[in-house]
Structure formats: C-alpha cells, structure tokens
Amino acid sequence: MTMLADLLSTVFERRMRMSGPARDDARSTEELAEALVGADGEMSGQNLGRLILDRFSDMDADARRAFFDYLATAMDFDPSAVRDALDAYEAEPGRATYRRFAAAAEPKRQEFIRRLNQVPQATGELVAMRAELLRYAKDDPALGALDLDFQHLFSSWFNRGFLVLRPINWESPAHILDKIIAYEAVHAIDSWDDLRRRLEPVDRRCFAFFHPAMADEPLIFVEVALTKGIPDSVQDLLSEDRSGIVAEEADTAVFYSISNCQAGLASISFGNSLIKQVAVDLSMQLPGLKTFVTLSPIPGLVAWLADQGIEARADDQDRLRGLAAHYLLEAKRNGGAPRDPVARFHLGNGAQVHKVHAGADVSDKGMAQSAGVMVNYLYDLAKVSQNHERFAASGKISASSEIRSLSASGKKLMAEELGT
Amino acid sequence: MTMLADLLSTVFERRMRMSGPARDDARSTEELAEALVGADGEMSGQNLGRLILDRFSDMDADARRAFFDYLATAMDFDPSAVRDALDAYEAEPGRATYRRFAAAAEPKRQEFIRRLNQVPQATGELVAMRAELLRYAKDDPALGALDLDFQHLFSSWFNRGFLVLRPINWESPAHILDKIIAYEAVHAIDSWDDLRRRLEPVDRRCFAFFHPAMADEPLIFVEVALTKGIPDSVQDLLSEDRSGIVAEEADTAVFYSISNCQAGLASISFGNSLIKQVAVDLSMQLPGLKTFVTLSPIPGLVAWLADQGIEARADDQDRLRGLAAHYLLEAKRNGGAPRDPVARFHLGNGAQVHKVHAGADVSDKGMAQSAGVMVNYLYDLAKVSQNHERFAASGKISASSEIRSLSASGKKLMAEELGT
Amino acid sequence: MTMLADLLSTVFERRMRMSGPARDDARSTEELAEALVGADGEMSGQNLGRLILDRFSDMDADARRAFFDYLATAMDFDPSAVRDALDAYEAEPGRATYRRFAAAAEPKRQEFIRRLNQVPQATGELVAMRAELLRYAKDDPALGALDLDFQHLFSSWFNRGFLVLRPINWESPAHILDKIIAYEAVHAIDSWDDLRRRLEPVDRRCFAFFHPAMADEPLIFVEVALTKGIPDSVQDLLSEDRSGIVAEEADTAVFYSISNCQAGLASISFGNSLIKQVAVDLSMQLPGLKTFVTLSPIPGLVAWLADQGIEARADDQDRLRGLAAHYLLEAKRNGGAPRDPVARFHLGNGAQVHKVHAGADVSDKGMAQSAGVMVNYLYDLAKVSQNHERFAASGKISASSEIRSLSASGKKLMAEELGT
Amino acid sequence: MTMLADLLSTVFERRMRMSGPARDDARSTEELAEALVGADGEMSGQNLGRLILDRFSDMDADARRAFFDYLATAMDFDPSAVRDALDAYEAEPGRATYRRFAAAAEPKRQEFIRRLNQVPQATGELVAMRAELLRYAKDDPALGALDLDFQHLFSSWFNRGFLVLRPINWESPAHILDKIIAYEAVHAIDSWDDLRRRLEPVDRRCFAFFHPAMADEPLIFVEVALTKGIPDSVQDLLSEDRSGIVAEEADTAVFYSISNCQAGLASISFGNSLIKQVAVDLSMQLPGLKTFVTLSPIPGLVAWLADQGIEARADDQDRLRGLAAHYLLEAKRNGGAPRDPVARFHLGNGAQVHKVHAGADVSDKGMAQSAGVMVNYLYDLAKVSQNHERFAASGKISASSEIRSLSASGKKLMAEELGT
Fold it and tell me: I need a labelling partner for C11 at 20 to 30 A (CA). Which of B224, C147, C236, D140 fits?
C-alpha cells in the first residue's frame, strides 16, 4: 500500500495547501494561537494548527521556551473570573452556570492543545512537544502548571481503552523494530542480530502498546522469555549460544525487560496493564505456563547499602541475597513507599517479591547498581488484585517465605556488621 | 478472523473472570463508583468498571435516573475547596498549587467516567449512557451539568485527529450496512435493495467517520451522488429507474444526505470535517469534478411563512422559490443566526446558498416542511475558509447572485401579499 | 480502500491501454489466438489476452460455439507428431526428447488457456468461459475433449493447497453475501432477513473456500447449525422463531447445506476438504462439540421406489424410514456405487449413514424427492480415513446399527409389498 | 495476529495428527508415493502427502537421488500405452478416448506432484525439492525429463495472473527483508544499514512478486533509484553519503538490480512482467518520471574480448565504451541471440541499448567481468511491444544512435588492434 499511500498524500497535500493559509502567514505564532483558540469551526482550525505545529518544529530552543512561556502565562486561567463564575454557580447551580465555571476554571491552553490535536498526525507531535517542555518544566513553576495540562489531556487521550496490544516479532515492520532497538532501556540491544535473538526464537516474545493515532510509535513494550523453571541470571537468558526450548514445554514466562518509549508520556502509566494483559494472553495461548515472573534489576541496592554504611561486596553472594531481600522489604522512602523504584512499580501492580539471585547481572551497570543481584517479582493472576489492594491500603508487601527468611538474616547481618 | 476472535474472547473472558471481582459483589453501585475513583491502579479498576457498566445496563429507568443523580450531586465539585485552592494558587502560583486547584475544580465524576473508559469496549457503552442521560438532562439543572462533563470528555476523545474516514460501499460488512439503514435520518432507506441502489452504482458514494475504539459504529455518514450538472430534485436522484453515468463523466458531487448516528454524541460536531474531507478526497480521485453541492431540505420554511401570515401554496413554484430564498437569507433567530438549522450548519461551514428548487422533495415530509422546496449549498473549496470567517465574524451570508435576486423578489412578494 | 483502488485501476487501465493493442485490431479472434500462443514473451501476451477475453465476452452464442470449435479442432494435438516424438523418445530417452514428446502430446489450446490466465482478473473469466462451454460439450465429442483440457488446468490451479477457507458471517462484505444468497442450492435463502437468521446467531456458522485470484467469488460454502443433539427436521432448524443456544452449550455441529458456486468448476471437487477442515476448526474452537453430522436430502428415494413399483406414502413414517435406510445401503447404480448422489459424496468422504428422519423436509421439493425423509451422515474424525479407505477399496458402506436394522426391516417390507 | 496464528496452528496440528497416519508408517516412501497417486480422495491424500514431504526433508543426498530416480523411472509414462490410446483416439475421437490418451501421455509423477501440492504449505517445499533436483538433472537424462514435469507444473502454478506485486520498503516485515539481503544477486547488501539505505530514502523503491501460497517468500525483486538524469556509475548511486532528492523532482527511474530468489523456479520467467508493471505503477504515482532505464552489468565483456584476442584495459575509457557497444550489438552466440545474458533478457523484453559508461562499477566483480563498464537499457513504454516483436521475429536490436556510432568505432578499433 505504500505506493498508494504516497500517491494519496502527495495529491492530498497539494490540494489542501491550495485552500490553506499561506505558509508565509505574516501573523506571529502567538497571534496564530489566539486565532486557533478563537476559531469557531474546525474548518480553518486545521490549517492554523498545521501552521503552528510546523513553526514549532522549526523553532530553536529559545523560541520554544518563549512559546511555552506564552502558553503558560497568556493562556492561563483568570482567578477572578473563576471566583465570579463560582459565585454565580452557587447562586443558581445549573447547566449554564456550570458551563461558565468550567470554562473559567480551565486555562485556554487546554483548548489550544485540543485544537492542535485535530490536525492529522498531530498527536505524535504533541507528545514530542511535551517531551521538549519537560526539559524546562522542572525549574519553572508556570511551565510546571502548563505540563500538568498536557498530562491531563494525555491521560484522557491515552486512556487504556484506546490502546492496542500488538505482538512484536521478526515479522514486524523494520521501522517499528528500529524503534524497539532505540527505546530498549534495560538491557541494550546492540545490533539487528541481537534483536533477532530476542524476537525470532519460539521461546521468546515481545509485546507493545500502540495508540491508533500514532500507529508507528510503540508506547511501551515488554520482552518475555519462556523457560523451564525460573532463571537466575540475565546473562544466561540472553546468551548467544543458549539452547532454546519448544514453547509448549515452557512452564514459566519471564518478563525480563520493560521499556517506556515516549519521554513525552512521562507519568502516563500503562506498564501494569501491559504486564497483566500479556500474562493473560500467554496463559491462554500456552496452557502449560504456570508461573509469570519478572527478572528485574534492583537499581537502588548499592546506594542504599552505602547510605547505611555497608559495603556491597559482590563476592559473598549469600550475604548479598540477604541484604537485597532486606532492602526490598524494609527500605522505605519518605511517605512509607518502598525505596526501590522498580519494587514500587511491581508491588503497586500486585506482584510478590519472590526470589533474589546474586551474580545475576554482571554487566557494568548491574554491578554498579546492585552488585549483580536481581530479583523475581511474581505475578500470580489469582492474587494480584488482593496483593494490590493490600499494598495500596496499608503498604503491606507480599513476599515469599524464602524472601522473608532471607530478609530476616539480612537484617541480622547488617546489625552485626554495624555493631548495633 | 471471526472464528479466532470468538475463540480468543471466550477464553479471555473466562480467565479474566477468574481473577476479577465476583459478579455478586455485595457493594452498592455507588460504593463501587467510589471505589473506582479511589482505586490507585487501573489493575482492579478494570474489573470494577466492568461491573459498574454491567449493572448500569441491567438497570431500569428509575435506577438509571438515581445513578445519574448520584453522579451529579455526590460526585460534584466542592466550591469551597475550589476557593481555598484558588487562594493558595494565587499566593504561590506553581505546579503543586495548580494541580490542587485543577483537581478541586474538576468534579470527581469526570475521573469516574475516564476510569470507566479504561474498560475494553467501554467507549460505546459510555456514548449510550450519555444518550440515556440526555432524556433527563433538559429539565434538570444538575443533570445538565453532568451532561456537560460527558460532553467535555467526549470532545477530547472524539477529537477529529482520532477519527478515521472510511468509504461505505457494497463491499462493506453487512453489520455496518445494517446501521447505515437504521441511522439514515434524511431520506429513509426502506430495504436492502434501496441501500444497494445508493451504494453499488459507480456514480454513488458514501463515507463515514469511525472511532478506533468503536470500530463497528459509524459516527456520521454522508451520501453522495455524482452527476452531470446540479440536480433539481431528490426524487430523480433516488429514482429506481434512473440511468447512471460513468464516474469519470461527472462534473458535480451532490451531498444529498448527512446523518448523525450516535444520539450520545450530540453537540460533538464532525459534520463539517466530513464534508470537507470527502470533497477533497473525491476531487483527488475524479479530477473532472468541479462542483461540490448539497441538495438539502429547508425544514423551517413552511413554519416561518405561517408565522409571517403567508400561505406556502406549493403550486406557484416561482413564488415559492422567491420566498424560500428570502427565508434563507433574511430569517434570523434570536442572536442573529439564520433561523433555518440546516442553513446554520452549512453556512457555518463556509458554504454558499447557491440555488433553490421547487417540487424538489414531494415526500410527505418534504411537502409539510418546505412545500417541496430544496436548496443547494455550494462548497467551493477555494472559498470555504473565507466564507466561514466572514460568517463567523459578522454573520455575512454568502449567496449566488441568482439567490440574491430571488430573495429580493420574495421580499417584495411578501410585502405585497401582506399589504405592507 | 475502495476509493484508492478505483483511482488506481482507472489510471492503470488508461496507461495500459495507451501502450496496448488497439481495441480495433483488425485481426480475427482466431488470428489473435494464434498470435497469443506463438508470442514468446508475456509482454505483448497480456494485451493480446485481454483483447481475446473482451471479444469473447461480447460474442453471441453462435460466435462462442464457433470459437470453441476452433479451439477444439485447430488447436488440437497432432497424432502423427506424437508418434514421431514417441519414436524419438524411445530411441533416446532424455530431456530433449521428452520435451518434444510432451509438447506434441499437449494440445496447443492448453498453452492458449494458460496464457489467457496471465491477464489480470482472467481466472474468473476463464471459469465462466468453461461454464459456457459445458452447455455444448455434452453432445459434441470434440468439445468434450476441449472441456477435459479446461478441467485438467483448473485441477492444477484450484489445487487444495491454493484455496483459502474464510468464515462467512454478518460481518462479511455485502457483495459476498449477495453471492451466498444467489448460490445457495439446497434450502433457498429468500431474503436478507433469512440470510441474517443463518449467519448472525451465535449458534450458526458458514464457511467458504476462496481462490486468491478470484477473491470476490466463493467456490463452495457450507452452512452449519450448532445444536444440542442431532436435529430431526430442517424446518425446525431454520424456523424463524426457534430459540437459539449459546455456542459453548452445543454438542453437535450440523452441516445442513453445501453449495457449489461455480458451474465452470464442475468436477473440480473441494467439498470433502471443506467439510473436514470446518469440522477440525470447529472442534478446536468449541471443545464441547462431539458430533459432526449432516442433515441431508435423499434426492433419489421416491424415483427409486417408483422404479421398484413401490409407492412412497408420506403418512406411514416408520415404513418410510425403513425404505429409506434400505435405499441408502443397498440401491446401487451400474458399477456398484450407491445410487443416491448425496450418499456417494458423503460415503466417499468417509462418513457413516447415521440416522434417517421422516417428515424432516416438508417443502415441495423435499416431498417430491424423498417424501420428506432426510438423513444424517456422521463425520467421525477418528474414523473418516478408515471408512473412506474401505469404501474406496471394496464399496463397503459404514452405517450405524440403527440404520442396519432399519434397512433390514425396509427390505422385508418391500418384499412383502411386492409379494416376492 | 502472530499469537493467534501460533495458537491456531498448534491446536490444529495436534488434532490433525490424531486422525492422520502414524509418523512411523511402516511403508517405504515409494509405497507411500504409489498410495498417494492411487488415493481417490484428497482426504487421506493430505496425510500421505505430508508424510512424504517430511520424509524427503529428512533424507540425505543419496536417498534424495534415489527418490528422484524412482519418480523418473517408476512413475514415467508408458509409450505403448500412449500408442494404444492414440490408436483408439484416432479411431473415434471424443471425450473418453481423449481422456485415455491424455492420461497415458502424462507421467504419473505429474499427478504425484499435484497431489503433494494439496498439502498446506507444500508449494514452497516443492520449489525447494526442484532446487535439489536441479543439482542432479544436468547430467542425467531421466532426471532432466523429471525436471521438465516440475517446470511444466510450476509454469501453471506461478502463472503471472496468480502473482502479487508488493512494494518492499522499510515498513516491510523483517523476515522478508532478511530474504532480500540473502537473495540480492547483483550488488550485495552487506548489512541492515546498507539495506536501509536502499529502502528508506524517498528516492529509492523496491518491488517484489509473491505467490499467495508462499506468502513469506519473494520470487523476484527489483531495486529502483529515482534520479535526475541517467546515472553513469553504480558507486555514486549506492554511495553512503549521496544527497537524496524529493521523489517528485525525479525524471528518471533506474532499475539497478534485479534478483531471482528461488533456485527452484529456474526457467519460470517473471522478470519482464516485473519491470513493466513497476514502470507503469511508478509512472502513475510520479507523473514527472519520463525515463525508465536499467543500470546493468555486462557480465560477458571481458571474456569475449579475450576470446577475440583483445585486452580490456580499464584505463582507456573511450576505447572501452566503443568495445562494449560493439559487443552488445554484434556479439552473438550460436543461434544468433546476443551473447551477453543480461542483454538477452532486456532486449527480449523490448528494451533498447541506450548508453554505456566506463568506470561505472569498480568493484572486484565489476572490473573482472566488464573492466568496470556498465550499460543502460531503456524501457520506453510506448515502444517496448514493437521492440519486442522485432527482436523476437528477426533478432533486430534496438539501440540509440549514440550506441550505434560507438559500436562502429569499437568495431574499427578492434580491426586495427587485430591488424585485420
């Protein structure tokens, strides 16, 4: 279809441009933005929107910063208008007064972003626009507020109900696989041959969420290994000369890598949906699968041990496993949530801390972060809801008895080493 | 794929239900709704949401009304919380204070609806839910406000950028065609043979907008006849024994019927986009097409004439054309917009009042509404933007010189008949 | 995609015609045919082929007959050339002599037909051409031989390995459904509503074979009812007000109608593949299905009884069932095969005569052919191969014990009534 | 869909095997082959066929040779049966006698191969089987005859009308691209990055023919560069740091590489169809394209010059161009066809010898074969039919006047250098 699609888009664009606004529209981008928000039909809106998006894409860093400042300030809401509308609403609650209030309480920039999104292909450009915004938003309160508006709209647009789960395999389009290579964030893919090793064997799977309006861009993906028994090392899992198994023989599905792809979708979470749905789908397809686990890094272990005044010492592996179990179950950040970010994610999903393995990731990054220790989080489909509720309500962490006893020994070890 | 899809959904549902909440959950729907809004992960949210949607679908009218009342009142926003948040924001504008304000100003029911939408297949059910709500919302201010929240969210979800244009033809799936028959609102389709006459000939086209999350439901569709010259009667256009032409011979595309399909998407407008995009696509495909017009009803003509104390009299066709032209150009409702709703729609899109025809729709409905008169609105792609701007800014109606002179004679006629 | 496909084909055809032979080529169709067979590149062949096909489609009956005569005689093989080639081959068997022999033994018309098939869309036109040929071939030995060449080539082109099984349901394209209505040969479909009743309910299925080069034309299709227990009447099965069941509750799949669609594919058999593959697919999808049976007409019963001097008498139903069983098991045509054509088909596939039902088809056709009796042929997947082998090797008919004892009583009855 | 397809095939195969012949069938492969040809239903045939294909795939070279010998001899036709059938046919020509003759004249192995092809997925395996056969067939007359039967059947199955043209680009599935890398026969693709350079830029295209029964296997593909003017060197065309152009700016499409993919389809020609159809499609899509040329190797130049006693001498480039033009126009093999195989292919398609370039392929292979000279064959859509006819009828080669005068000077040079 590519030929036809090219043909179509070429002619289409030519025709559209005939009736669209001249590219050399003399108005400033800010004036165009005002016109877009004010336009009362989407007819001219699409042309205005395309012009604004094209201008943004051509802007240098300073111009973009200025554009964001404009949205954050000139298109902010007006507190006094909110107060007036609120008074009117309380005086006579109803459709008209509520409409006035809702309009007053919403910054004009939200409507502006929605109208930009009416332009064909705009969704991906808006996600990229927010990725750009996030560079500045941390240190600037007004841009932080603007970012909340992006986040609010994106939560609505990238609603789980609109996402599509697609398998990624060696039959997937090359331009999608290109992006899998680029976006892999946990265990880097260093070549097409490496990618093929992760996708082509019958005991390997990969799945990604897509949004219909950004069909060429994976949003998040997970890589899965089908194994007999729970693996204790990522080196073995990814080894070039491992011997594969027939998928039907596997009893375990190992989620060994989960990567978010879009910086502009930060804080829009779909990871837990992805894992759960993939687990359900795989269990349908391969009834022999009984165990769904991750093989996860423990990014905060070494830093935490150092904070406690404890050296990691990769050579004493039993000691390390105890310390890691103790860290995962007991180390908290302010507010009481687990200190380890990966633990927070999986426990929040209803998983259980199941096993820890020393010498499991001997890459430079693995040794630096966790002295080579990794952890399996177990997704027991029959218990995830209950685990999740308990964790959400009371912070209670689900853990195997093996982990509990390892944690106890780790605690004792620490006390001894610290002389407390 | 149907067989596989069936297979999939069966097994899938079985598995999902295993780990989901019991259908006999003892909590009230209101308690479930609270739980859904409060749930801090979508994990359990999907199960809760499915349960709530299923319960709603089983409710009788009273229970639904009570459910809407609950959403409208118990899940409303709290004005005092808004005021406090506003104070805090003004004291120190920034991300945290803006987040607090935005949260306070948005009724909880918006988040509730968004979370329902995370459930697979929920979008269509929510559209149906709003269709139900609209029955009550007119007379109830609180429900009117609730409806605005639905409308606000739907505007975001059914953003033009997310819609897909698909041709509807004799190769379309029967279950979609079923809906075309059901939803046709202008010139009823009375059988599959009638439908075939509108879809199969090479000089007939039909296009619809779809949303990816409701793939089986057209949102709006337009029927098009390709003709030589502008037709002056819908009877001829739809006649069983008309002789067709080869598409390449046509110089005119006539949009003779536009139907909205989803009552639950009232006030979410996509009609202008549809016409414009279809016009662009057709002009690409058939370079011989020079003229894009509607053949439209004039639903308010007879009533307006009666208001003026003028009898319509279908037999004096020249007189009628003058009266109709005058009505279209001069009759206004409060606020100054054209009185005729179809005129408002097309003029708002940037179309021109181009021609009027007497004896053009002699169906019962056509005679009752407009004494048989119909009108062509012209979509001149090179002028729609400009027409639209002028109409939006100053209410100026674009009309052909023929229509202008007809209107003048109509005005004169009326004055004479009324003795003024 | 229709719009694009239209666009494509229009431009494509325009361009192709520019460089193709003029439609007003002065050569006779016979000369064109000679040129096509002689052309040593497919380049000009496609243009020649299209021209010949278009001419054929414009011919009247006489011209077509003359065209077939030409193929049958002028493009026949040359016996003396075969003899010479055979001598040469026997003198020195090898690639070159075999090539010469094979070329001599194959009538030129085979190559002619193969070259016509290189033209886009030609396959369906060639199938229609053979359907036309079959009208004349019965009474004309030379055309009979020509038909064998068509049949030989079609067997190769419509090889089972090239066919695609597709479900037909209420989501199928209307133009395909149109053809299902037209081609249903057993129990006529009298309206779109009737069709919907056979396709839309969850306990009804339909499957068809398609060939990739004739994607819009079903070749053969089977209609299936999912039931609890074996049904004893087609009226009940097709009743408008029957109460359906959930597919998962069914224990039986009833093949109640099988229709060949293409007269031009006579004697190219795919029926047995279709039934077997549908049975396998359904048993995968619905593990609850234990029984796969037909509900079949007995078209030759009344005629055979009359031949024996026995009156059918639809009111004595037990007697009729005995006679029917006896007919199915014992009535043979010359050569020893079962006299009943439907019985030959299913027994040849490895099915078993399982049950007979009186009053099972009370339509005019059913009463006239079989006095209302119908039969279930059972497809026991574990036994079809074995049944088939036995039937093929020795003519042994597989039958249930119920049928065997019915047949015995039927035989006795006949002897008594005939006084023998 | 991969997951579902996996699911399907797994369950499907399990069920099929239950009712199929045991894999440990005690019969020899020859006995199975006899049974397959004799089987009078495809029912058991599919199981037999699968068993035979699996056995073949497990055979070593000797066993395969023996299997081919068996087909060539035991399944040959019987000359005396042909003579008898011929006598009967001449005595009374008609359907029955022709059927007998056609059956006698066709070796049983043809029916054997057709029946193997009824097995799902068999087509590709049969193509591979012939590739294997071709290793032995050259030196063995009986195997040569067997190969002709394969060729005869494949010509019918891979009929142009059954082939599908698909664009190959950076959105194509990786497993297809894998094969493009493997099959490129002219200018090797040495990495995925090299492949991307040939597929991703907007001024590069690639197209392949596929057969529906071998959907994952390209049969032949052509790589195209869109350029301004005719390029004079393949190095420039494939250079890593070339600067691309917008497709709409191109006036020339250069077919710079055509590769057959399936050794088992030797002598089944589709190259000329491919070039012609791609030229037509591209000219539709990009009306600016005026010139369609190849940039082709001249594989036989150096060898021919050596035969004449002339040294190639890559440094004198004008001389070389003259010699090359002379070679292309005048060097013939026995029978009068051009000596150069690439020239035979393109001239047979109706192309013209248009330009020659020295220093155009300085790779080792290019220098060794043609001292770096390359040639453009021009496909003038308005003249290909006529060129083809003349070349086919009289061997007349179409050449530009530039080439004609170069050839004349080359001839003169040779005469001088040889002192003749």
Answer: B224
